[in-house]
Specification:
Coagulation Factor XIII, Chain A, domain 2, 5 domains, 11 helices, 5-stranded antiparallel β-sheet, Immunoglobulin-like, 35 strands, alpha+beta, 634 residues
Length: 634
């Protein structure tokens, strides 16, 4: 600090006055008055200012805040006083710009303290990453630029806390209250309408998207947050990975360690009973939420660490579309009676799947399918880290069943006794969809159902139907593609198969976003009067081609994509995103015939030396959202 003259430690005093910029009601939590200590070794609790050194008219001092200080913009006023023979001479100066006080994962006394430096670098400082999407058998990386250092991001995060999350007073220094409120503030409304709270993003899970941006078109959080902060109006449209990527940005900007987490075959439990009724409640191919790191003084130290928060608007909690923080340790142990939203989160990763037959009786329970390959980005790389064993014990283990039944009892589910006294009436005939290899969009494929009579003594007459359909990533039926009826007689230990050949023409016009299919089988075994329903539909995707990106080492990027379809591509274009700084669209002027390559080049604008992630996306009237990425080192 520069003064008008040398600071005399014997006759001069200095006081720092701080106050939260946007709080109208003043209190001990929103204001601070700090007397400069001239003893370098003096340490006080709470606010503290210590003179460290001085030279000529300059002084250096250290100012520290309480670990639970309100996270906000603070204004600073400096007052000086000098003792003279005539009395006290004083002057003051107000800093023209406020300072930001954030959560501090480097501070041992802060509730978000994270001891490991590599973890802090990954979950607080890293401004780029990947989010995992697809199916449990076909996991793909989707690049995401968090860009928490970009213009307006921190200002918007502070605005959300106060104006949308409505966090007041001391709660603004509490990561529990903050993450819960921000899980609501990032979303606006599940129905795609504008709600009164004016949160950042509007969710939409089906076309049309003509009055907004397709969820697949977002490369990162920066444009979303900047657009929202500039207009204070919700941005259209988002799906789960967009909500999760945006919340990651907001929490990291505030200093809260955060990571997006993807769960494959994720249940959506509408009523909190931990039971998913087939054809009544949905199973998402994948769902993405967040984990935030903090202590849980409200629950006890054993529940501290990673906490699940979810900004995707799914079910109301305390009158808002908000979810969490739910302690990961509580989810693992089946502690459903703890805050917040533990039942809903537990069901996402470990609900049981119930099939009700035509006679209204329970016919099967699938206990192992939900909650597979729970994933996040590995520290220091773009590889996948599997978190499944952090959420639950291995499927089929004694502890996993004990934890589920404990959770079921604590959830006070009325279905507890009804659904768990079921005998499997069919031990003879086994049905299994035969896995098949990688299928590129444009190719045909064969769906094969293997049927085996496992009885060594009994023959069986089996009739049924094999259904192939397309579906959304949230597990909702889209269109029927093909059906194949079968009628077979099986001698003891005999095997047979039912196959369906599917061409590009069969499925192309019925595809929906992200190219999901599901195969279902229903059958009747005459001799034992048993109606069979496949406990878990077989799900897969036809793969998009990859956009190849080459850099000449100087200034030119070359983009290339080979058309995999048996039809030409019209109105093709590449979109290129470099970090959060550059986004460019390159339109192609010619059709791309089948098997031919679409190519484009782009000059890389001047950038500071460093490491950048380049992402490219291709789209045309016939082919949507192939992607590719590479690392650019300048």
């Amino acid at each position: 600090m520069a003064l008008s003259r040398h600071f005399n430690v014997k006759t001069d005093d200095l006081t720092i006055l701080l106050q939260v910029e946007d709080e109208e009601i003043r209190s001990d939590d929103t204001t601070a008055k700090i007397q400069l200590s001239k003893d370098e070794n003096e340490v006080k609790k709470g606010w503290n200012a210590v003179l460290k050194s001085q030279a000529d008219t300059f002084i250096t001092m250290s100012v520290s805040s309480p670990a639970d200080c309100i996270v906000a913009k603070w204004t600073i006023q400096v007052k000086t006083a000098t003792k003279t023979e005539a009395g006290i001479e004083s002057s003051d100066y107000t800093l023209p710009l406020p300072i930001y006080i954030l959560f501090n994962p480097w501070c041992e006394n802060d509730n978000v303290y994270m001891a490991d430096a590599n973890h802090r670098e990954e979950y607080v400082e890293n401004d780029d990453g990947v989010i995992f999407v697809g199916t449990s058998d076909d996991i793909k990386r989707k690049g995401w630029s968090y860009a928490q250092y970009d213009k307006d991001i921190l200002d918007c995060a502070v605005y959300l806390m106060k104006n949308i999350g409505m966090i007041k007073g001391r709660a603004r220094g509490d990561p529990i209250a903050t993450t819960r409120a921000l899980s609501a503030a990032v979303n606006n409304d599940i129905r795609g309408e504008i709600s009164e709270d004016h949160g950042i993003l509007v969710g939409r899970w089906n076309a049309p998207y003509t009055d907004g941006t397709l969820p697949m078109d977002w490369f990162g959080s920066s444009k979303i947050i900047q657009q929202y902060y500039g207009t204070k109006q919700p941005v259209r449209y988002a799906q789960c990975w967009v909500f999760a990527g945006t919340l990651t940005t907001v929490l990291r900007a505030l200093g809260i360690p955060c990571r997006p987490v993807s769960c494959f075959t994720s249940a959506h439990d509408n009523n909190g009973d931990l039971i998913i009724l087939k054809d009544e409640e949905s199973i998402w191919n994948f769902h993405v939420w967040n984990e935030a790191w903090m202590t849980r003084p409200d629950l006890g130290t054993e529940y501290s660490g990673w906490q699940i928060v979810d900004a995707t608007p799914q079910e109301m909690s305390s009158g808002k579309f908000q979810c969490g923080p739910a302690s990961l340790a509580a989810i693992y142990n089946g502690d459903m009676d703890l805050p917040y939203d533990n039942k809903f989160v537990f069901a996402e990763i470990n609900a049981d799947w119930i099939q009700i037959g035509p006679d209204k009786k329970v016919q099967l329970v699938n206990t192992t399918s939900i909650g597979q390959k729970i994933s996040t980005k590995a520290i220091g790389s773009y590889e996948r880290e599997d978190l499944t064993n952090c959420y639950k014990s291995p499927e089929g283990s004694i502890r996993e069943r004990e934890t589920f039944l404990k959770a079921l009892v604590k959830s006070e589910s009325e279905k507890y006794r009804e659904y768990y006294q079921i005998e499997d009436l069919n031990k003879d005939v086994k049905f299994e969809i035969q896995p098949f290899g990688d299928v590129m969009i444009g190719q045909g494929f064969e769906v094969v159902l293997n049927i085996k009579n496992q009885s060594t003594t009994s023959s069986h007459h089996v009739t049924g139907r094999l259904d192939l359909s397309t579906e959304t990533y949230t597990g909702r039926f889209a269109s029927s593609v093909k059906r194949q009826a079968f009628d077979v007689h099986l001698k003891p230990e005999q095997k047979t198969k039912v196959s369906v050949m599917v061409t590009f023409e069969d499925y192309y016009e019925k595809l929906v976003e992200q190219n999901y299919f599901r195969v279902q089988c229903e059958a009747n075994i005459a001799e034992i009067h048993f109606d069979y329903y496949m406990s878990e539909p077989f799900k897969f995707r036809v793969r998009n081609p990859k956009v190849n990106i080459e850099f000449d080492g100087s200034e030119t990027l070359t983009l290339e994509l080979t058309n995999p379809l048996p039809i030409a591509l019209n109105n093709g274009k590449f979109r290129v995103h470099i970090a959060s700084q550059i986004e460019e669209e390159i339109k192609l002027n010619q059709k791309i015939p089948p098997g031919q390559a679409a190519q484009a080049t782009m000059k890389v604008p001047h950038l500071s030396p460093g490491r950048y992630i380049v992402r490219a996306q291709f789209s045309s009237d016939e082919l949507h959202y192939p992607e590719g990425y590479t690392t650019l080192i300048l």
